[in-house]
Amino acid sequence: MTPGQYEAIIHRGVPLAGEWGIRVLSAEAGIARLELPHDPRLLRPGDTVSGPAIMGFADVAMWAALLSVSEGRDESLTATMNIAFLRPCGPGPLQAEARLIKGSGRSLFGEVVITRVDDPRPCVHVTTGWVKPSAR
Question: The whole model's pTM is what?
């Protein structure tokens, strides 16, 4: 699948990702890279992207990594998210790299690193657990 096809799936499944303008730069073999453009609506005092926006961006990035190993069909649900805000991200744009660490079985695990587009030093580190829903 192309990045644009993953992006379309994500924007349909999480319309807020489309409203925020989240772009899928690449998604393959359990690794996805996404971009969150600058958007004044996502800022908090101090001219930096807000925590809730960063958490949403990380969650969408991990879903893109999951989609990349499931032919674009993934109904997994976020079960846990542990987030470390390492330094202010600034006003954006931001880039996320999501990596699937354990992608088989009912429980899935991954990590996301978020940086500024113009600075490769991590701003945010996320570990996340997902669960596949039971077959009905």
Answer: 0.95
Torsion 122-85-90-60 (CA) sign: positive
**What is the span of the domain harbouring residue 117?**
3-131
- What digits encode the pLDDT tens for the residues 86-110? 999 999 899 999 999 998 889 999 9
Which CATH number is 32's domain given? 3.10.129.10
Torsion angles phi and psi, residue 52, rounded to 5: -60, -35
| pLDDT tens digits, 40-59 | 999 999 999 999 999 999 99
Q: Per the structure, how many domains does the chain have?
A: 1
Residue showing tokens 């997994």: 76
At residue 30, what are phi and psi to the nearest 5 degrees?
85, 10
Residue with tokens 């989240």: 22
